[in-house]
């Protein structure tokens, strides 16, 4: 099996040392299912200070990442050309459907991590196939976002998660939140596990879980529904995002 490769463009490659060594991601790398490589655009800077940023034309606060080091770093990745993702608060909002779609698109991705006040627009125009934002907030750089994108995509790669059913039943699978879950003891601090889960009747348990999943979503994330009618109907017909994302 050819591993899925993630090429990270970052001025802080050390950020990913621990990320690559622990948990699901660490095991996936060890088992040859994915590869994560870091590339520092400073290595492609032309001045003695290895600068990757400069003052913005027209004035304004902060510094902007220069196009030459980033684009030349991308050029160095060779063939097959990766699908290039720019991590930016201006990008398309990251979600489970998009993670699944991209995980099936190709076997090589480049993730471009910004710093400072943002990117020279020519990086976006000439160097990115897609802009991604992991949320409506601002980080100091794209490294944390890169970790989020890699982990969510990797879960959809065959063999990365030992039990494939746990992926399909995750929260946001089918645009529904997960049902409440319980383990031992059956009672703790006056709070009891619902009797249905102790009944041994798997058909009734499954029905309860489906109902609780819909109720959880209705209460906590009503935005995931395109309508609020017939919430006990076919979840694919009432939940936003059941269709495939646009092609890129």
Which SSEs are present, and which pair or pack?
Elements: E1 4-9, H1 23-30, E2 34-39, E3 53-54, E4 64-65, H2 67-75, E5 83-93, H3 96-103, E6 108-113, H4 121-127, E7 130-133, H5 143-154, H6 164-168, E8 187-188, E9 191-192, H7 195-198, H8 202-220, H9 235-238
Helix pairs in contact: 2-4, 3-5
Describe the structure.
There is one protein chain. With 248 residues, this protein is an alpha/beta fold. The chain folds into 2 domains: 4-154, SPOUT methyltransferase, trefoil knot domain (Alpha/beta knot), CATH 3.40.1280; 171-238, Trp Operon Repressor, Chain A, CATH 1.10.1270. The chain has 9 helices and 9 strands. The strands form 3 sheets. Strands 2-1-6-5-7 form a 5-stranded parallel sheet, with helices on both faces. A two-stranded antiparallel ribbon has the order 3-4. The protein has a two-stranded antiparallel sheet with strand order 8-9. α2 runs parallel beside α4 and α3 packs across α5. The chain is elongated and about 70 Å long. It starts with a strand and ends in a 10-residue tail after the last helix.
Q: Class of the largest domain, according to the CATH hierarchy?
A: Alpha Beta
Identify the quaternary structure here. Answer: single chain
Number of DSSP strand runs: 9
Instruction: Provide the low-confidence segments as ranges.
Output: 227-245
Residue share in helix: 25-40%
Q: Fill in the CATH topology of the largest domain.
A: Alpha/beta knot
Radius of gyration: 22 Å
Any idea what the CATH architecture of the largest domain is? 3-Layer(aba) Sandwich
């Amino acid at each position: 099996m050819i591993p899925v490769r993630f090429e990270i463009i970052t001025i802080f490659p050390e950020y990913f040392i621990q990320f690559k060594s622990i948990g699901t991601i660490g095991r996936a790398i060890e088992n040859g299912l994915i590869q994560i490589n870091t590339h520092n655009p400073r290595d492609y800077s032309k001045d003695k200070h290895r600068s990757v940023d400069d003052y913005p034309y027209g004035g304004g606060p902060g510094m902007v990442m220069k196009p030459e080091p980033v684009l030349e770093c991308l050029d160095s990745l060779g063939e097959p050309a990766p699908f290039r993702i720019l991590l930016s608060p201006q990008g398309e909002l990251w979600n489970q459907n998009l993670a699944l779609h991209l995980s099936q698109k190709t076997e090589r991705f480049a993730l471009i991590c910004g710093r400072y006040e943002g990117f020279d627009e020519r990086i976006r125009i000439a160097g990115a196939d897609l802009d991604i934002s992991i949320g409506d907030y601002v980080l100091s750089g794209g490294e944390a976002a890169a970790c989020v994108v890699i982990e969510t995509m990797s879960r959809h790669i065959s063999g990365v998660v030992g039990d494939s059913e746990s992926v399909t039943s995750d929260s946001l699978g089918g645009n529904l939140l997960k049902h409440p879950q319980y383990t031992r003891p059956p009672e703790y601090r006056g709070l009891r596990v619902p009797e249905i889960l102790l009944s041994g009747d798997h058909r009734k348990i499954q029905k309860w879980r489906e109902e609780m999943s819909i109720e959880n979503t209705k209460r906590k994330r009503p935005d995931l529904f395109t309508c609020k009618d017939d919430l006990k109907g076919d979840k694919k017909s009432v939940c936003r995002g059941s269709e495939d994302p646009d092609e890129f």
